[in-house]
Design the sequence.
C-alpha cells in the first residue's frame, strides 16, 4: 500500500488497476507496480500482538525525548546487531548500547513506570521506526518480561496503530 502511495499521481490522473486470482497490477503514467500473492501458513497475528490489559508492565513516556535518546544510543550500538538494553525501574528508563570497541552509550529518561525492575534488549532500529510512526506526544510501551514482545502505541488515544517489537537476547 505504501508503494501505491509513492506512485505520486496527480489529481485527476488515470490509474489502471488489474486484479487477477494471484496477482495485482497498478499502472499510473509510465510506472507499473505488480504484486503477487504469496501462499503459505502465517501465524495468527492476535497471538503475537499482546493485549495491553493483560501485559503487566506499562511504560508511558514522552515520544520525542525517548526517540532522540534511542537515536543517540544507536550511534554506539554494535553495527551488526544494533542492540540496546532497556533497564526499567520505578519512574526511570535507562538505555544502554555497547559496541565491540568497548564504547558505551547511556541515556536516562524519566518515565511513568511503577512495575518491578526489568531489563530487556531490542534492535534499536525497530524501536526508532515504531516511535517515528506514532503521532501522539506520549507513547505507551506494554511489556511482560524480557522474553515477550513489546507493544508500542499512542498513550491516551483510542485510535491509531499498534507496533509490536520482538526482544533480543543480550
Sequence:
Amino acid at each position: 500500500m505504501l508503494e501505491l502511495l509513492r506512485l505520486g499521481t496527480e489529481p485527476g490522473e488515470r490509474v489502471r488497476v488489474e486484479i487477477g486470482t494471484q496477482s495485482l497490477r497498478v499502472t499510473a503514467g509510465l510506472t507499473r507496480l505488480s504484486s503477487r500473492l504469496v501462499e503459505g501458513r502465517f501465524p495468527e497475528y492476535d497471538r503475537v500482538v499482546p493485549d495491553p490489559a493483560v501485559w503487566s508492565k506499562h511504560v508511558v513516556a514522552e515520544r520525542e525525548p525517548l526517540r532522540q535518546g534511542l537515536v543517540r544510543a544507536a550511534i554506539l550500538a554494535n553495527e551488526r546487531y544494533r542492540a540496546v538494553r532497556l533497564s526499567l525501574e520505578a519512574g526511570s528508563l535507562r538505555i544502554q548500547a555497547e559496541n565491540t570497541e568497548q564504547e558505551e552509550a547511556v541515556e536516562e529518561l524519566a518515565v511513568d513506570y511503577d512495575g518491578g525492575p526489568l531489563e530487556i534488549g531490542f534492535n534499536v532500529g525497530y524501536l526508532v521506526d515504531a516511535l517515528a510512526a506514532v503521532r501522539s506526544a506520549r507513547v505507551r510501551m506494554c511489556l511482560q518480561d524480557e522474553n515477550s514482545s513489546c507493544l508500542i502505541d499512542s498513550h491516551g488515544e483510542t485510535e491509531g496503530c499498534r507496533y509490536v517489537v520482538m526482544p533480543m537476547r543480550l
